[in-house]
Specification:
Elements lengths: L2 H4 L6 E2 L8 E2 L3 H16 L4 H15 L7 H9 L6 H17 L21 H8 L5 H12 L3 H6 L5 E2 L4 E4 L8 E4 L2 H13 L12 H19 L11 H14 L2 H8 L4 H5 L12 E6 L2 H9 L3 E6 L2 E7 L1
Antiparallel strand pairs: 1-2, 3-4, 4-5, 6-8, 7-8
Helix pairs in contact: 2-3, 2-5, 3-5, 4-5, 7-9, 7-11, 11-12
C-alpha cells in the first residue's frame, strides 16, 4: 500500500472526552487503529483515492477528539459550522469505517445535503487563467477544458493511451465511470505533440502531474488573475469546473444528452443531467442563416448549424461564433 494512504502521522496530542487519558494521532491507539481501518479497507478493494480521503479525515478527527468516544466524535462533526453538510457526511462515513473496523457502536448520522447546481465558468475566464500558465500546465488545463476529464483521470493517463494522429485520449476511468475516448482541439494537440516530443516517456509512463499539483497550480494562477484584474469571481473557479464547462458546452452544441453522458463517462444518466445547465449566451454570440431548400438545409447542418424555428416557410438556423 502506498504510504500516502495509510501513513502514520506526526505526533500531536488530542483532547477527547477523557482529557486525563488523551490519544495521539501519531502514536498509540489512535494511529494503530486508523492504520488497521485503512488496511482492512484496502483488503476490501477500496481505491487509493478513497483510502487517502478517509485516512486524512480520520487523522484530522484524531487531532481534535478521542476516536474511541463515538458520542464525542458525533458531536464534534455536527458542531463544525464551517463544514458543509456534504463534507460532514463524508467525515461521518470515514469514521463509520473506523467504528466497524474497531468493534465500536454508534448510529451513523445523516446530514441533509442541499442539491446545488455546478458552477459554469465562461470560456473567456478559463482561458484568462490558462494563458498565464507555464510549461506543461498550459497543456494540462487545455486538455481538461477540451475533454471534461477529471483531474485524477488525466493523472492516470499513460503514454500508450494517447493517439497523436487522431488527437484522442483513452480515459482510464475514475469513480466507477465508463471507459471512453475523448477528443482534444487542434491547438491542444499541437501542445501535446511538442510536450511528448521533448520527453522520452515510455509507453507505460504517466506523463502528466499528480492531481494535487494540478489543483495547486490552478488555484495559484486563478488567484493571481483575480488580483490583477480586481475580479474576485475568478477565485470561485475550481479546476473541476473545467469539467462542468466541457459538459455544458457539449450539450449546448449537440443537444444530445446521451452523447454528453458518454463524454463524461457517466453510467447513470441522472449524473449527466446535473451538468446540463446551459450558459445564457448573448445574441451576438451566434450567427444565423435561413434555408428554403433541402440542399440549403443539408449544407447548413454539415457546417454545424442547428435548427431554431420556421418562419414563413423558411427554416432558421444558428451557429455559435
Amino acid at each position: 500500500m502506498e504510504k500516502v494512504s495509510i501513513r502514520r502521522s506526526s505526533r500531536a496530542q488530542v483532547v477527547g472526552s477523557n482529557p486525563a487519558d488523551p490519544t495521539t494521532s501519531g502514536t498509540g491507539a489512535a494511529a494503530s487503529k486508523i492504520f488497521k481501518t485503512l488496511w482492512e479497507l484496502k483488503r476490501g478493494g477500496q481505491s487509493e483515492d478513497t483510502l487517502k480521503a478517509k485516512g486524512d479525515r480520520l487523522r484530522y478527527l484524531a487531532r481534535h477528539v478521542n476516536l474511541d468516544d463515538t458520542d464525542a466524535v458525533k458531536g464534534y462533526i455536527a458542531n463544525q459550522s464551517k463544514w458543509s453538510n456534504a463534507y460532514k457526511q463524508g467525515v461521518a462515513y470515514a469514521y463509520n469505517s473506523y467504528v466497524e473496523s474497531n468493534g465500536l457502536k454508534w448510529n451513523l448520522p445523516h446530514f441533509r445535503i442541499e442539491d446545488r447546481l455546478p458552477r459554469i465558468p465562461t470560456e473567456e475566464k478559463i482561458n484568462q487563467v490558462i494563458v498565464r500558465a507555464r510549461g506543461k500546465y498550459v497543456l494540462v488545463f487545455s486538455i481538461l477544458r477540451d475533454t471534461g476529464m477529471r483531474p485524477i483521470e488525466l493523472e492516470r493517463t499513460r503514454t500508450r493511451d494517447i493517439d497523436l494522429e487522431r488527437g484522442i485520449i483513452t480515459v482510464r476511468t475514475a469513480k466507477g465511470g465508463a471507459a471512453r475516448n475523448v477528443q482534444i482541439r487542434k491547438q491542444t494537440l499541437a501542445l501535446l505533440k511538442e510536450y511528448l516530443g521533448k520527453h522520452n516517456f515510455a509507453m507505460n509512463d504517466r506523463p502528466f502531474p499528480k492531481r494535487r499539483k494540478m489543483t495547486g497550480r490552478w488555484v495559484r494562477l486563478r488567484n493571481t488573475v483575480a488580483a490583477k484584474l480586481m475580479d474576485p469571481t475568478f477565485r470561485t473557479i475550481r479546476l473541476y469546473d473545467l469539467r462542468h464547462f466541457a459538459a455544458t458546452m457539449t450539450y449546448h452544441k449537440t443537444r444530445d444528452i446521451l452523447y454528453t453522458q458518454r463524454l463524461l463517462g457517466h453510467r447513470n444518466l441522472k449524473s449527466t443531467l446535473r451538468y446540463v445547465q446551459l450558459i445564457a449566451f448573448k445574441d451576438d454570440d451566434y450567427t444565423s442563416a435561413v434555408a428554403r431548400t433541402v440542399e440549403e438545409i443539408r449544407q447548413l447542418i454539415e457546417a454545424g448549424f442547428e435548427y431554431v424555428a420556421e418562419v414563413d416557410g423558411a427554416k432558421v438556423f444558428r451557429k455559435r461564433k
